[in-house]
Amino acid sequence: MALDMLGVKYTPCFACESQKHLRVLSQEMHGYCHMYVDVCSDQFLSSPTCDLFVSGFPCQPFSAAGLGRGISDKTSGKIMISLARWIAVHKPRAFVLENVQGLVQRHPRTLLTLMTVLQGLHDHRGSQLYNVSWKILHCAKHGYLPQNRSRLFIVGLRSDSQVSPMTWPTEVPTTPLRNLLKTKLTKTRAAELGIGVGSLNASERTNLIEVLKRLRARGEDPAEAWVADLGGSRAAMMKSMCPTLTRTRSQSGGFWMTWLGRKMTTNEILRLQGIHPHSIPCGLVSERQVRGAAGNSIPVPLLARVLQGVLPSVGYKV
Asked: Which residue positions are annotated as catalytic (predicted)?
């Protein structure tokens, strides 16, 4: 999708996904030449070589919302090693790895280890294979979308292919939240979609009451664009900005929008990740599964802006 946004012609060589419903959805959307199940398998290591390798490896071990086990999480540790191994064997012109900023803030040793491994790769002459750098980018500041989502991007440019320095995205204007979230639904329709006030559980109802009380106590108008996370032990809210869409929150309807009096539709969650709703095939997977996949995805415009700096650095026109 990010390459489509940039107007770059490409062949989708392969993908790897452990969950069956996501493999079905991804294959239908992108038409990969090969699809793999396990990134740690010999089959994946034997996949075709490509020019651009992109991976958003599991973030839960490094996320504040996860268990925080870091590289001690056996699955995550194996995946990181397998990705580095694939890069060493196939030597793509460029690679982009994406994860949560918690990898920098809470697990700096893990990041240092990963960077040391990637920077330590050498070609047959003993020269450094990749120039590797990283940066934390914010979805709203660098990717146009009004979502409070910071992500770590690690970029590697193969030394013998690099023709210019990597240019990281600069800050850009943020799309107003109301431009993306503006559809008014009747109470009946919201109830049918399971996103109305009647769909809230007891804890969410308590949090919603607390949100409205806090807004009024501060002299704020709930008719303005306030977005509230009702799923935690204590409600959190942001004005004109959507909190981070995780898989769990997205599956349960995202966040409460005070000015619309409901949670988010599937299409709204997709738009907040830069995914056009019409690009999602109908009927292949459930809406809950679509929302969960969206919450786990890389915001498309943000990735596009990273690739806008990566591709020219290794000789591709964008």
From this structure: 59
Tell me: do 95 and 77 sit in the same domain.
Answer: yes
The domain containing residue 273 runs over which residues?
A: 177-295
Distance, CA of 142 to CA of 307 (rounded, Å):
13
How many Å apart are CA 288 and CA 266, to the nearest integer?
8
| Amino acid at position 148, single letter | N
Reply yes or no on whether 242 is catalytic: no
Q: Which amino acid is at 154?
A: I
The active-site residue, picked from 13, 33, 40, 59, is: 59
Cα distances from 283 to residues 159, 259, 268, in angstroms, run 45, 31, 18
89 shares its domain with 143: yes
Find the distance separating the first CA and the last CA of the chain, reported in whole Å.
Answer: 14
Angle at 224 between CA 254 and CA 256, to 5 degrees: 15
User: Are 161 and 95 spatial neighbours (Cβ–Cβ below 8 Å)?
Assistant: no
Distance CA 290, CA 187 (A): 24
HSE-CB of 237 using CA atoms within 13 angstroms: 24
In a domain, 274, yes or no: yes
Task: Name the pairing type of β-strands 52-56 and 94-100.
Answer: parallel
